[in-house]
């Protein structure tokens, strides 16, 4: 029964990995898009983290996680006699499957090793495997998802090292040195999760100095390698040894200095110190948050999660995904209720919570962006694309179309301003071809508006079938799309807002034209 349940949950995880939900732009712009621009000829967009004077994102962890699979995929593509570049959407789905595999193998394996009790181990593995966080966030290309695996395996290595205090652990110490530095360059928040577990290593390394030397040497080598890769990436010319010595790019330090400035964090949103503890953690754990308060299982994993939450709460910018490494640690550190009635109530609430949040975040959350971008890549006349009230679309999925297609992300621009933008410089003149089915694709220039169906401001313009003013011709629609950033309870009320956003869910693309003299 336990094995069948677990295998079923693995298939659920794979299904969500292959669903085109879009949880946050960072899952593309801080990872795959950067490396895709290095390996393939796709034109890409580098976000501010990579373009400021002192860049704060390292490319070192991106190469083994995303670069190697892309290189392997390109090798297989060419080896099979295919000409031209691999379609970006094929790379996109390959990376999703990759994230599913490393989540399924590395995360579950780590939990299996970290929990010593057989009975508790089965419960822990099932709780982690049935969490919507595992289904969604861990199967997407977030640096936080990678951080989750790094934290878990650092704990595994620490346990292996201290398990045999009388024996040297050269291999485990070497791997720990590499993985720990890898984690720092992936996210500077990583050391927060090892503050307390790391204390267990002090007595061991005091007695085993050779093992400590292997740890330091591995960490030092990895640091030099990471700095060299980052310096080569951010230096506009071929680097020399003098560049590495005199002008090294040390992205973790840049990242730390940036985040220590409240004025910088204010640009991304400031939160109270209790945001993680009282809002984000319950949002990720659901009913399991009650078990954490009432029936915790004291373990090194729990101490790791506590230290991480404490340090992350010091910073004023707090997003729920920052806590991803704590979720498997906490879920493997709680006890289920012993009374049958309480156990049934928990199981029922746990299933409902994860099915609801899994469907919302894994299927509908900005779910139309990736399919819309694939559609836009196939429109021969597209030269302007305006994305309104959505997340920033991944440019690399345009498959080279962005050499002629200008993508503008206007996010929350007021409707009247959007109208002026479209009417004056962007919308093309309405032609006889625009009035015939599919004939508009023969035009040289075309302007497209991508917006959620819940954008009610557009309603008054969509009925215009004549030539006066702007004309919106719907050419594509995707129903499994929800825009949670379009909630306006203060002005529309709770019921009307939900009726608009949920009842009118979906993403559409309109070809925009105007009447010309």
TrEMBL record:
Intracellular or extracellular location(s): Endoplasmic reticulum membrane
Keywords annotated in UniProt: Endoplasmic reticulum, Glycosyltransferase, GPI-anchor biosynthesis, Membrane, Signal, Transferase, Transmembrane, Transmembrane helix
EC number(s) per entry: 2.4.1.-
Major site of localization recorded for this protein: endoplasmic reticulum
Origin superkingdom: Eukaryota
Chain ranges passing through the membrane: 58-77, 89-106, 141-158, 170-189, 209-229, 342-364
One GO biological process term: GPI anchor biosynthetic process
Enzyme class, first EC level, given as a word: transferase
A molecular function GO annotation: alpha-1,2-mannosyltransferase activity
Signal peptide (UniProt feature, chain positions): 1-25
Membrane protein topology class: Multi-pass membrane protein
Pfam families in the record: Glyco_transf_22
GO CC, one annotated term: endoplasmic reticulum membrane
Pathway: Glycolipid biosynthesis; glycosylphosphatidylinositol-anchor biosynthesis
Listed InterPro entries: GPI_mannosylTrfase
Protein family per UniProt: Belongs to the glycosyltransferase 22 family. PIGZ subfamily.
Protein name: Mannosyltransferase
